[in-house]
């Protein structure tokens, strides 16, 4: 949590006032045009990472010959880098990293296991840092602190992202790490090393710890209220949901460890993606986000009780930073590994007003979940950061019950309506003089920036796409023409258009086709056919015929064609001579042109004087072998002839033929 001072501007500071106004205008321009919200929902994990109640015998090996690693007393200055931050420890780099070759490996069911035992003089919690050269699929890690009641479920290779991993927090000064590989992996070949240890020196259970300088260490410094203390309040069921979406965050920055709080958010498409909101000064960049570990249900079972909720669990592996901004102070992320069962994805709402009753759900100084009650006193107010400097545009809340402290940073502000809690923003900090005066990010001011994720759509084959994006889906998983069964599905405000349900489509061969000259053609294949078997230019009488699931395109029936200039000839078949035609009659002019296909063009002419003079009837008629001539009165004669010609080109002479004898045209 950062401390702030309210920025006040007078007419004597016109430049600062103008900058403040410019910031307000720029941010206001990104506000949503209308209010938007999502309802809360229980998270439905595919496989929880943590299982409460796993017995200590969950270790595979006996641990009778562990590699003993003793860390000396470490003196660390826990003065925070910025006022209001909650610093918990330091990172100790091992002089010699621990590698598999230093450990004793014993045979266990299915493979080999070794144990590393870390002992410290003054830590109250540990986080181990591993570096991987490669990660065999059979690798499993098991981890337990000396004060952990249960052994968490094993860490599988699929939960390791990249070549580095900060393991979950263990409680107590000592911890055991068991490494398991399958029988197919030689332990000596395992490329892994333990090179750093985060020594947590502040005990959030209240015990004192030596070896560091800090004003206090333990439970919340001021009067706070456990979640369970609100059990008689009508808002309690909604607050339980908000608490089930709230995490205590451990992270590392510049060689030290810190605590913050944050909230899981639900998207409108109910994709069950673990979106996570916290403060920019908590997880400001990807390097810090990679170190994050999240504690869930870190809350008391009763009002003012010491005992922790048995549902307590952790998510490790860091988070992917999707969007962050210094001025408005949010960080929006996606957890790399799923949270445990029973957590909630919080609902959210972009509307907020001065005077609204609100609740803060947080982990002050890493304590159990505390809930504060108050009301909104100002919106989009400019504050100056007393630590990092700079100004922020934030919403102000005055609490009447409880407040916020170091470690509360990033926690959610909630309004309760209709029995549900709706997230309104993340905590930036509080007043140096009043722990009940707190400021939060103005969600409506940056909603458009994270809206694509909060309006994501679930895909029928798993996963999701952000709002505004599209994906190609298929009606069935196999097809002879996948493009014919494809559909573009677009995500709009959590709703996915269309109905096709398959992510991919694989081509499968359909029925083959029978070829006109014999034999067959496989589905999807093509062949060149010819209209005639001998032509002046075979390319001009060629056609590509394609087989599509038993249906052969095109109509040409010859398998081969021979180029031959001698093959060209023209014969006029009708009128042949001696016929009599009457004006108005339609007369079929018929001919045969060899050596050319139907794409050739012919000219048809009429002579009224036995061939002495010709008049054109049709130019460029398709070489179909027939053209209908409608006889006119002006064409009346007893000496009529028809001529059909293939025009000459620069390479070939004209090819013509005339009716065998004259015929008569009468009026």
Automatic annotation (TrEMBL):
Please state what the protein is called. Conserved domain protein
**Keyword terms:** Signal
Q: Which Pfam families match?
A: Trypsin_2 (PF13365)
What span is annotated as the signal peptide, if there is one? 1-35
